[in-house]
Amino acid sequence: MAAFEALTALYTKATSEETSDARSAAAAELASGVEAAGVASIMSMALPAKVMASLGEAKNVAAREGAVLVCHALHTKLGLHFEPYMLLVLPALIERFDDKVKTVANAVDACLSAFVQAVNPYAAATLLPFLFAGMGTISWKTKVGCLKLLGTLAHTAPTQIGQLLPEVVPKVTENMWDTKPEVKQAAKACLGECCTVIHNPDVQPIVPVLISANANPKENVSALDRLMGTTFVSQVDRPTLAIIVPVLGRGLRDRDVQTKRKCCVVVDNMCKLVCDAKDVEPFVDKLLPELKKVEEDVPIPEIRAYGAKAKATLVKAIKDGGGKVPPEYE
Q1: Share in percent of the chain as helix, strand, coil (round to 5)
Q2: Domain range for residue 255?
Q3: What pLDDT shows up at residue 1?
Q4: Distance, CA of 123 to chain centre
């Protein structure tokens, strides 16, 4: 009981001291106390609830900054053992990217950057919804903060982000069209970092072109031309498809029949090298309906033939990889 009271007193000190240095010292002392008492003491003293309450104190800078410093100190001291507790307060911390007081916002940036750099790679899928929620807020500072964290996560958990890229690309692309220049810039940088997980040697040289086409639909045709000129010889996996499919989907919906033809040729060439149905599965809904429309609705027989061939190749890739094709596309 004495230890619990001592830890609670240290938390109060960390969130009420006059200066940032004093708050930081108290936070470090609290982290050492928790380490000595055991990780279970975090819940015994109801730390997550205390942190969220402090972060919500709009008129108390010491409480907000102190709560962030406590989280940072605990993560520094306890490492992976503090991760589950960090997730409990993560939404409240992300909100503070937009804090009106710069020292608080900077403390949040330092705390969350350190957390994401050291996080268990297998936690990537758990973290993404928090980052996506932040990227969808009204606050441009929160958007920029979350985009930077996502870019960092791509280096901390490259394999996991590679598998999650089909979810990541559309969310980041939405922010590329934001009205705020800082958000656009952060989104483009973030997508660039996320695309470092693409290791297909055929596509790697044109990744910047594909990123630019995702940011600016007017560049879609030139990106398609680059894809047309790419000879696919290496296996096409999920991360590679994640950056290519949005460009193809946009091209297949284009009114110009020659653009549709180019997309069909790329799909045909690319899908011959898809070895696992799980890789193409996230994109079936985006490609098959559009290819079927080309096959059935385009008035030019030659283009319809391209559509039918591309659809047949995609269906074969799914079946060969052990996947299921919706009956209407058989």
Answers
A1: 80, 0, 20
A2: 200-330
A3: 46
A4: 12
In-domain check, residue 247: yes
Say if residues 74 and 34 touch (Cβ distance below 8 Å): yes
> Around 227, how many Cα atoms within 13 Å sit in the side-chain half-sphere?
32
Distance of alpha carbon 120 from alpha carbon 238, whole angstroms: 22
Yes or no: say if 14 and 69 are a contact pair by the CB < 8 Å rule.
yes
187, 150 Cβ separation under 8 angstroms: no
Q: How many CA atoms lie within 13 A of 164 on its CB side?
A: 23
Mean pLDDT of the 197-208 span: 93
One-letter identity of residue 142: T
CA distance 97 to 95: 5
DSSP 141-198: HHHHHHHHHHHHHHHHSHHHHHHHHHHHHHHHHHHHT-SSHHHHHHHHHHHHHHGGG-
Residue with tokens 């705020």: 180
**Is 65 contained in some domain?**
no
User: What is the mean pLDDT of the segment spanning 29-33?
Assistant: 93
Q: Among 119, 102, 182, 180, which residue's Cα sits nearest to residue 154?
A: 119
Residue 287: closest CA among 239, 241, 240, 222: 241
Average pLDDT, the chain: 92
Q: Could you give the number of structural domains in the chain? A: 1
Rounded to the nearest angstrom, the gap between the alpha carbon of residue 224 and the centroid of all alpha carbons in its chain is: 25
The CATH number that applies at residue 221 is: 1.25.10.10
Q: Is 12 within the bounds of a domain?
A: no
**Alpha-carbon 238 to chain mean position:** 15
Of 306, 238, 225, nearest to 268 by C-alpha is 306
107: left (phi over 0), alpha (psi -120 to 50) or beta: alpha
SS (H, E, C) 83-145: HHHHHHHHHHHHHHHHCCCHHHHHHHHHHHHHHHHHCCHHHHHHHHHHHHHHHCCCCHHHHHH
- Structural domain contains residue 118: no
The one-letter amino acid at 158: P
Taking only the tens place, the pLDDT of each residue in 9-26 is 999 999 999 899 999 999
